[in-house]
Specification:
Blueprint: H1 2-18, H2 22-43, H3 45-51, H4 55-87, H5 94-103, H6 108-119, H7 126-152, H8 156-177
Helix pairs in contact: 1-7, 2-4, 2-5, 2-6, 4-5, 4-8, 6-7, 7-8
Length: 178
């Protein structure tokens, strides 16, 4: 069973990063951002009703803010990954790396909404949302590592070092910002 599940995971990761279609590369992270926004809207639906704002208008503003946040995170994460690949001796064009990050984000389509419920503390959902968020983040980072490894003709370990260094840097930055 273990070998079969590893093959299944590898097939999912390979399908994610090696069959990059234009829609996946361009819409990967924006779709995650929309799903994040929708989950945030649902998590705060009681507050929206209390404000008396039309649901469609509130959803528009939440989605606008969520998309802006997602696009900035996409750019910021890509720049940090770009810097770490250079630190590890690699050269990859920034736009190619943005495409690779977005194409690796399929797991975030589940993880982003779960993270929104986790962060917003939706009652009864935090434990499962935490688990789903962390698993999807791990799958995203794994897919990105595999893609970076293939794109730069690096070993998986070297690519994992660059992705891990970027992740630790960003986690430290986020922690200090709190």
């Amino acid at each position: 069973m273990g070998a079969h599940s590893a093959v299944g995971l590898g097939a999912v990761v390979n399908a994610t990063i090696f069959t990059e279609s234009r829609w996946q590369a361009v819409l990967g992270l924006p779709t995650a951002g929309l799903l994040w926004s929708f989950a945030t809207f649902l998590a705060h639906s009681e507050q929206v009703e209390a404000l008396g704002v039309a649901k469609s208008e509130a959803l528009f503003y939440v989605a606008l803010g969520g998309m802006a946040q997602t696009l900035l995170l996409w750019l910021g994460f890509t720049v940090v990954i770009w810097a770490m690949t250079r630190a590890f001796g690699g050269r990859v064009p920034l736009l190619r790396l943005m495409t690779l990050v977005s194409a690796s984000s399929l797991a975030l389509w589940v993880g982003a909404p779960a993270a929104a419920f986790w962060i917003n503390g939706a009652p009864g959902h935090t434990a499962i949302a935490t688990t789903i968020s962390l698993i999807s983040m791990a799958l995203f980072l794994h897919a990105l590592t595999r893609g970076l490894s293939a794109d730069l003709h690096w070993s998986f370990l070297r690519a994992a070092g660059a992705v891990s260094a970027a992740s630790v840097f960003l986690a430290s930055f986020a922690f200090l910002a709190l």
